[in-house]
Design goal:
The chain is about 35% helix and about 25% strand. It is α+β, with helices and mostly antiparallel strands and about 400 residues long.
Length: about 400
């Protein structure tokens, strides 16, 4: 925890940020080891201070910060007083603009009217993108849990079962293996069913506006993606695309299944999707740009003459092939067209090619990888193939 804070302080100093106020729960967990209601005050120089708004006993048990850096939190006026006691002037305060409500921003701005507010989100997310050894192991363990999802699908998927019934069985087995069912997303408008996306042929080509991907239609227009009450039929393709949150760190994996024997077209599309993923994986190497991974996948899709169905179709076609994963399901870097973010050793990425054909269905293959010194390491435990059930 101390090393993480010191690294942020160095980056703050280089960026001209005098002090940061960290309130977003995932960021708090990353820097302080607790997600309880707190304000973490990080000056560009000197020791941080964790102001505990509630659950003092929880925080004392959870945080790795020394007790000398903990105080009961009483609000922004207290922070203002603490700032006045610092041995240097605070003119610039860093906040996570993407993650705090406008009303809270206004309170901070009013209380610290003599200071300029700047967005510290890029510094925090860039730092979080490179995982330390403990974080890599945590993502790996989360990814390994897909094996129980796979076994559940293989044992229960059949014609006559509804999408939502299969989703419920998946959710049950994940909870039995200690998965947390809250899938963390930083976006304020992001919601995801805890059982992920369980979608069959009737809905596989339906793409909602939430993301340019296979989303299903959900149970109502209140959350129009994920499993529905559609009954699965013989010959259907079924995609299981799921975020798995294990003790705070997340994985994002998808496989495609066929109810009964797959036909020639289904097998052919599966081979194409795997070829596209292989092209994307081959492009992952430290020093490469995130956008180059997408370009490699797009090039392979064009070579296979399926570019019009790659990552969607027509106006609902995405220009990405994956994203970072960690404390949140969708983190930087984005493996998308034009993204110049440099890939670094220690990043954990989800690579998710898909071919989506209107009125036919879709095939999806998603795997998590660790960027290594000379390329990548696949974190999957289930073969990359089309499974006949």
């Amino acid at each position: 925890m101390e090393n993480r804070i010191r690294l942020l302080q160095r980056n703050m100093h280089q960026s001209g940020i005098d002090l940061a106020i960290v309130m977003q729960p995932r960021d708090l967990y990353y820097f302080a080891g607790t997600a309880q209601p707190c304000n973490l005050i990080i000056p560009a120089h000197g020791d941080p201070l964790l102001l505990v708004r509630r659950a003092w006993d929880f925080v004392c048990r959870e945080t790795r910060l020394p007790s000398s850096q903990l105080r009961v939190g009483e609000g922004f006026q207290q922070i203002k007083q603490l700032i006045s006691e610092l041995p240097f002037s605070v003119r610039t305060i860093g906040l996570t603009f993407d993650a705090i409500p406008g009303s809270l921003y206004k309170k901070v701005q009013t209380c610290f009217s003599h200071c300029s507010m700047v967005d510290i989100t890029p510094l925090i997310l860039q730092q979080r993108a490179v995982k330390d050894e403990a974080e890599r192991e945590a993502v790996k363990k989360a990814a390994a849990l897909y094996r129980v999802v796979h076994h559940t699908v293989m044992a229960n998927l059949r014609a006559g079962l509804r999408e939502i019934d299969l989703a419920a069985l998946i959710l049950k087995v994940l909870r039995e293996h200690e998965a947390e069912t809250i899938i963390r997303n930083r976006r304020w408008d992001a919601s995801l069913p805890p059982d992920g996306l369980v979608v069959s042929s009737a809905n596989l080509w339906e793409i909602s506006g939430h993301a340019m991907t296979v989303t299903g239609v959900g149970l109502s227009s209140a959350l129009a993606w994920g499993a529905s009450n559609t009954t699965i039929a013989k010959g259907d393709l079924v995609v299981v695309d799921i975020g798995i949150n294990l003790h705070g760190y997340q994985a994002d994996i998808a496989r495609t299944y066929c109810v009964g024997k797959a036909d020639a077209r289904q097998k052919e599309i599966m081979e194409m999707v795997r070829d596209i993923q292989n092209a994307a994986l081959a492009a992952i190497k430290p020093g490469r740009q995130a956008g180059q991974v997408y370009e490699a996948a797009w090039g392979k899709a064009k070579e296979l003459k399926v570019e019009q169905y790659f990552q969607g179709y027509e106006k609902m076609q995405g220009n990405y092939i994956g994203h970072g994963i960690g404390l949140e399901l969708d983190e930087p870097p984005a493996l998308q067209l034009g993204d110049q973010t440099e890939l670094l050793e220690g990043m954990t990425l989800a690579v998710e090619p898909k071919i989506i054909i209107p009125k036919w269905g879709a095939v999806v293959l998603e795997d998590d990888v660790l960027v290594t010194a000379d390329g990548y390491e696949l974190l999957y435990t289930v073969p990359r193939q089309l499974f006949e059930v």
